[in-house]
User: What shape does this take?
Amino acid sequence: MARYARSLGIDLPPRQSAFLWGPRKTGKSTLLRQLFPNSAHFDLLETQLLLEWTRAPWSLAERVQALDAAVRARPIRGPY
Assistant: This one.
C-alpha cells in the first residue's frame, strides 16, 4: 500500500480540544499517530470501554488522572 506525505498540520493550543472529521479510510488515524506518537489513546469502539464511560462518565477523568504527568501533557487520541 502506498503512503503519502500529509500536508495537514495540527497546532493545538494547550488544554484545548479538537475533532478531526473526514471520510473513512483517508488517513485520519494515521496522521494522529504520526503527529502524537506518545499520546494516550482511548478507543471508544471498544465496547467495554464505551459501556464503562456510558455508565460512569467520571471514570474518564479518573483514567486520565492515573496517566503519567508527561503523558497527560500531550493530546489524547481517540478511536481507530
In short: The chain has a mean pLDDT of 84. Residues 38-80 form one domain.
